[in-house]
From TrEMBL:
Chief subcellular location: other
Protein's name in the database: Flagellar motor switch protein FliM
Residue ranges of domain Flagellar motor switch protein FliN-like C-terminal in the record: 254-321
Originating organism: Lederbergia lenta
Pfam families: FliM (PF02154), FliMN_C (PF01052)
Membrane topology: Peripheral membrane protein
Length: 333
């Protein structure tokens, strides 16, 4: 059982108050009992532990980095997206905090049940559309009615972010996100019951000189099947089993498939410029390598192996004998 540790000054003040009659032992006991009582609001039940909220925050920090890279390439302007906060609140409270007119992307994430909401502030959404149409990335305060063209452009913009959402979630669950609808009025959304607990991930977004918020609303019913995976213990186990992130694994695969130049060096020789210019067909150049010495095999310009020449299927070949070690050759490279 944990207890607050009092300083020496606080102990002296308490003893002084008891000795002078300002406070009795009964008053002190009553005050201790009052401190143990905590107010709990059953309408706002906390169904996620701090550890689980932190795990969700890590997922969306990765998502924010992927979005920053994606939109920077798509819009060809300065883009910065970072996670600002993560809170769990009732869905009803979240809906009341949403502006009356905004961009609400409703996302289904099978095989998980339920739907999540990606709310994008209109200033950010219009700045993105302006860049797509060749503008400077300026925003306008018009959201009451989207034209068919604006609706199509915004749908395309945010549909292309779903593959990055899938990548961000890959360490916890294999999901296949799809955009089910795009809405502008939160009152028309019937995604979950008002008392449902949701986690709201708030992200600060900057596109060019325009700033705004992107909020992700995730209901408890969607996360319920994978809640055990949101613990720090599971997260650390996953990291230890798969120490190399997806990006590193892809990079390694690309590097392994890259072509490199391999050269078997028969030997070297030094000639004067005069002798070099006078070379003719049939001349013989003496190399500084003995016929029974191994050849130097280079990768690019770097000596890596020693080998011996031969033939395979009537073609010249070289057999690797050993790794090249510094000092195996007298010549300087």
């Amino acid at each position: 059982m944990s207890a607050d540790v009092l300083s020496q000054n606080e102990i002296d003040a308490l003893l002084s108050a008891i000795s002078t009659g300002e406070m009795t032992a009964e008053d002190l006991k009553k005050e201790e009992e009052e401190k143990k009582v905590k107010v709990y609001d059953f309408k706002r039940a906390l169904r996620f532990s701090k550890d689980q909220v932190r795990s969700l925050t890590r997922i969306y920090e990765n998502f924010a980095r992927l979005l920053t890279t994606h939109f920077s390439a798509q819009l060809r302007t300065y883009v910065d997206i970072t996670v600002a906060s993560a809170d769990q609140i009732p869905y009803e409270e979240y809906i009341r905090s949403v502006p009356s007119m905004t961009i609400l992307n409703v996302i289904e994430v099978p095989p998980l049940e339920g739907r999540m909401i990606m709310e994008v502030h209109p200033t950010i959404a219009y700045a993105m559309v302006d860049r797509v149409l060749g503008g400077q990335g300026s925003s306008i305060n018009k959201i009451d009615s989207l034209t068919e063209i604006e609706l199509r452009l915004m749908t395309n913009l945010f549909e292309h972010t779903l593959e990055h959402l899938q990548d961000a979630w890959s360490g916890i669950a294999e999901i296949e996100p799809t955009m089910s609808e795009l809405e502008v009025n939160p009152q028309f959304l019937q995604v979950m019951s008002p008392n449902e607990t949701v986690v709201v991930i708030s992200m600060n977004a900057t596109v060019g000189e325009t700033s705004g918020m992107i909020n992700i609303c995730i209901p408890h019913v969607l996360l319920e099947p994978i809640i055990p995976k949101l613990s720090a213990h599971y997260w650390m186990e996953t990291v230890s089993k798969n120490r190399k992130p997806t990006e590193v694994a892809i990079l390694e695969k690309k590097v392994k498939n890259a072509n490199v130049q391999l050269t078997a060096q028969l030997g070297t020789s030094k000639l004067s410029i005069e002798d070099f210019l006078s070379l003719d067909h049939g001349d013989v150049i003496e190399l500084n390598t003995r016929i029974d010495e191994p050849l130097i095999i280079k990768i690019g310009e770097i000596p890596k192996f020693t080998g011996q020449p031969g033939k395979v299927n009537k073609k010249l070949a070289v057999q690797i004998l050993n790794n090249f070690k510094e000092g195996d050759e007298e010549n300087d490279w």
